[in-house]
Amino acid sequence: MSRRLAKRPVPLPATDLPRLRERVRARAENRPAVYRMLDAEGRIIYVGKAKQLRTRLLSYFRAEYPDDKAARILYASHDLAWDYTPSEFSAYLGELRQIKQYRPHFNYRGNLTRRAVFIKISRGPAPRVYAGETVTRDDARCYGPFRSLGRTVEAVRTLNDLLGLRDCAATMPIVFSGQGDLFGATRQAACMRHEFGSCSGPCAGFVAQREYRARLATAIAFLEGRTIQPIDRVVGGMQEASETDRFELAVRWREKFEHLEWLLAATSRARTAVDLLTFVYRDPGTYGDDLVYLIRRGVVRATFADPTTPIETEAFRAAVSAELATADSIPGPLPLESVDEILLLMSWFRAHPDALRHTKPLEAWV
Description:
This protein is an alpha+beta fold. It is about 40% helix and about 15% strand. The chain contains ten helices and ten strands. It has helices at about 15-25, 55-60, 70-75, 90-100, 150-165, 210-225, 230-245, 245-275, 310-325, 340-350, and strands at about 35-40, 45-50, 80-85, 115-120, 130, 140-145, 280-285, 290-295, 300-305, 360. A four-stranded antiparallel β-sheet has the order 9-8-7-10, sandwiched between helices. It has a three-stranded antiparallel β-sheet with strand order 2-1-3. Strands 5-4-6 form a three-stranded antiparallel β-sheet. The longest helix has 29 residues, at about 245-275. Mean pLDDT is about 90; it is low at about 1-5.
């Protein structure tokens, strides 16, 4: 007698799905909106956006459990709530801000489609310069965004090698020269980079903290376009190798030059892309409820109803003047708390180039 493996039983949903579906059909409209999925205790477990709310919510009930993420979210939900928004753009922005506010379980990391490549400076006594696709609490600064992870990693490795910055694990114990009783102790770096001359060895007391910080400051200045000292060093090494007929060494120096040249251009393009996201954006509402957004360096600083009367226009002009009077941060690292919003605006205007026709420089309002 053959045995058949029993199928894994499908767990019961957290609520009466047919009843919930009927409520969506009866009350939800096909308008832009931000919606929330709540568990039995009223906690928000998922935040989403929709250009057409009714259509989007009903699609959850057609998803197959457990293969589809939408079905898994729905099965864990006890209730639905939503807020209509004037437009699709405002829905995008509202979704992002509610995710940051509530940090729901099912989209804790935000919208992964907006992931990008960054160069980051870690915290700690001997900060690392490294590339990655997410910004974490361990990061003190970040630069970008960049398109190619491979080229960015390669360029950062070259920068670290030239300046002797560590690229080991964040958990590596650090001991600077002058710290602890190192007299008579055998010191050995944790990796071969110190032996090759590409790391100053902060893991074994081969460098003072002040000197390491000076090397890091040079890396930051290069990433912010305030120095080309690393490139000068590469050019000097390339010329010396060529004059002494060490052509293989000259080729390696040439490769380092290409890496840094690309990085210098890429950081400049990234800063320019962020700086260009400075304007007033008039966003046409689906039902005539237009909004204007005061945007500076990729961050929405204020939102107003579209001014249509002289009094409203004067009030908005005063808000723009006040923003321009506020000293903006020197272009350099991205504001860590606004990275997701900057990426969202970049993505929106890249995908909707016609929206740029609804923008106007801040100075045009004053």
